[in-house]
Amino acid sequence: MSERSSPVAGLTRRAFVIGASAATLAGCVSVGPPSSPPPAAVGAKPKQVRPAMYDALPQEQFPVPAVDISKLDERFWRTEIDYDTPEKPGTLIVDTPAKYLYHVRPGGRATRYGIGVGRDGFSWAGRAIMAYRRAWPRWTPPDEMVARQPELEPYSIANGGMGPGLRNPLGARALYIHKDGRDTLYRIHGSPEERSIGTEVSSGCIRLINQDIIHLHDNVRDGSPIVVIPDPAKRHLLAV
Questions:
Q1: Which stretches are annotated as coiled coil (predicted)?
Q2: Terminal Cα-to-Cα distance of the chain (whole angstroms)
Q3: Tens-place pLDDT, residues 64-94
Q4: Residue 23 in contact with residue 120, Cβ under 8 Å?
Q5: Nearest-angstrom CA–CA distance, 204 and 211
Q6: What residues contact residue 207 under an 8 Å CB cut-off, 6+ apart?
Q7: Is there a domain that residue 193 lies in?
């Protein structure tokens, strides 16, 4: 599998800126012709086997349940691919329209993750830096979000935010995006909601399944460049 990245070198402020089962053959003998499968089995769709990378993670500070892959389209499963891009290894590339995040690796390779992105009105694109990472972070919604959703007041900055855990909106890990030395308030973070991957649901942040954000957190380095490719269908993109 090979992919070519969208052109990103020309992004400016004028542009809309800113994640096989093994079968054991037992010896057996069949006498006579094979019987037909029961009616309920005829034409039944084979059940998908969850890959080991999406198993439960009981060793985590807050044990992460296994991914329900019936809710996660296989095209958004984490995979290693050939990837042609001018960006240097270590760069994170967020392809907003395709709903993929690429972690560029040496030798023309990349790790590709399925993502959920911001809904219309909260999207962003451009170039920035993944300044640092946190495991099981606290969540403090910006004052602007609290103003829109007063029910979030108990978790405001003034009240110290929400403690880490499976119900925390940032999930198991968070990567913090800065531009020109300042926090953009945008994050790449985890989520337990399989159905949100491949959709536009969050308030501008990039979300991955918890197993995928843990994998990314463990392989990316602080200070890595991040390039977010805009969705041409969006009319209101925020600059970062």
A1: none
A2: 32
A3: 999 999 999 999 999 999 999 999 999 999 9
A4: no
A5: 21
A6: 115, 116, 117, 171, 188, 189, 190, 191, 193, 196, 197, 201, 213
A7: yes
CA distances 91 to 120, 160, 193, 239, Å, are: 25, 32, 26, 19
Cα 204–162–137 angle (5° rounding)?
Answer: 70
**Any idea what the CATH number is for the domain that residue 168 is in?**
2.40.440.10
Give alpha helix (H) positions in the chain. Answer: 143-148, 210-219
Can you tell me the distance from the alpha carbon of 1 to that of 167, in angstroms, rounded to the nearest whole number? Answer: 36
| Dihedral sign from CA coordinates of 125, 130, 133, 137 | negative
Domain membership of residue 215 (yes or no) is: yes
> Based on the structure, what is the number of domains in the chain?
1
- Give me the active site residues, please: 189, 205
Confidence (pTM): 0.80
**Using one digit for the tens of pLDDT, what is the confidence trace for 165-191?**
999 999 999 999 999 999 998 999 999
| Residue 156 tokens, joined | 């405001």
Alpha carbon distance 216, 10 (integer Å): 26
Among 94, 51, 54, 73, CA closest to 210: 54
Q: Which residues does 125 contact at the CB level (< 8 Å), separation at least 6?
A: 11, 15, 16, 17, 18, 96, 228, 229, 230, 231, 237, 240
